[in-house]
Amino acid sequence: MITLTHFLVVSACIFAAGLYAVLARRNAIMVLVGIELIINAAILNLVAFGRYDRGQYGGQVFALFAIVLAAAGVAVALAIILNVYQHYQSINPDDIRDLKDQ
Amino acid sequence: MESLLFYGFAAVAVGASFVLVSMRNIARALFLFFVVLFAVAGLYVFALADFVALTQILIYVGGVLVLLLFAFMLSNKELLNQLQQGTSHFFALPVWQALAVALSFLIILVYAAWQFHQHEPQWIATARNAGAVIKSSDATVQHLGIHLMTRYLLPFEVISILLMMALIGAAHLARKGGQS
Predict the structure, then answer these.
(1) What phi and psi, each to the nearest 5 degrees, are found at residue B23?
(2) How many domains does chain A have?
(3) Is residue A81 one of the residues assigned to a domain?
(4) Structural contact between residues B37 and B56, judged by C-beta atoms closer than 8 angstroms
(5) Quick one: pLDDT at residue B179?
(6) Which has the least CB within 10 A, A62, B39, B54, B126?
(7) What angle do CA B110, B116, B121 make, to 5 degrees?
(8) Nearest CA in chain B to A4
(9) For residue B125, is pLDDT > 90?
(10) Residue A101 domain flag
């Protein structure tokens, strides 16, 4: 029997992995992958709780909205990363310190 | 059998995501992200959200992952060279502060899940007693479509406007500069 707690523990593990990627990696693309992992953990929770909402399907509908939001966010973030790479010749977040052109 | 499959998918998702974040080679890590997304889509099926699982595969695997691979190839000259030479270090050194933060978050979340298991919220118990739990025989896609067009129409329209704004913004950011 698969209970809600199983889903919660799995999504906690995925969330922790994504948080580690966001904090520790030295590459903007891997930071983005970490954010995607965190969003996936959240969607897993939405879907798992949405099972107990048969009348309104709130969990599944908002899981769909979250997937669309994540896709839009990735498109914008990748455009920003490519611009930053053209400017600094690097996508290490530690190298990017100036807001303005020198 | 069912719980065995669930544990299989969960082990693949968690294991692949742990290996992914500790891997030095970004191309391999992106392909492991592919594995994680498929396994998580399998987990959605176990929560009886088949349409969400299909959407996950279509949008994430078909769109987001291809986009990430393109950005990786366009932005990472040194890492591409490193990929051709073959790397000597398979795993990156763990940064211990980030590891400590992530581990403490994991412990807190697992503790919260355990507490949740002991004190189940009222609305879940009521839903279970009233039989308002999604069953595997329900026509999920049909119900989702009806609810998207009636109860959740406003969020649906808001999200479509936001998607259009994001697309225009991304196209504006990615265009050739020089004429601003």
Answers:
(1) -95, 140
(2) 1
(3) yes
(4) yes
(5) 52
(6) B126
(7) 155
(8) B117
(9) no
(10) no
Q: Does B62 touch chain A (CB under 8 A)?
A: no
Q: Report chain B residues whose CB lies below 8 A from the CB of A5.
A: 113-114, 116-117
- Which H or E run contains A35? helix A28-50
Q: Which CATH number do you get for residue A27?
A: 1.10.287.3510
Every domain of chain B and the residues it spans: 1-85, 140-175
Nearest to B143 among A57, A59, A78 (CB): A57
Please give the CATH topology (third level) of the domain spanning B1-85. Answer: Four Helix Bundle (Hemerythrin (Met), subunit A) (1.20.120)
Provide the whole-model pTM: 0.88
From B146, B22, B97, select the one nearest A60 (Cα to Cα): B146
Instruction: Tell me if chain A has a CB within 8 Å of the CB of B72.
Output: yes
Per-residue pLDDT of chain A (102 residues; tens, 9 = 90+): 788 899 999 999 999 999 999 988 878 888 999 999 999 999 999 999 998 888 888 899 999 999 999 999 998 998 888 888 888 877 777 777 777 665
Q: Which amino acid is at A7?
A: F
The domain in which residue A82 lies consists of 4-95
Spatial separation of the C-alpha atoms in residues B167 and B16, rounded to whole Å: 31
A71 with B59: Cβ contact below 8 A: yes
C-alpha–C-alpha distance, residues B92 and B95, integer Å: 9
ipTM of predicted complex: 0.88
Does residue A83 sit within a domain?
A: yes
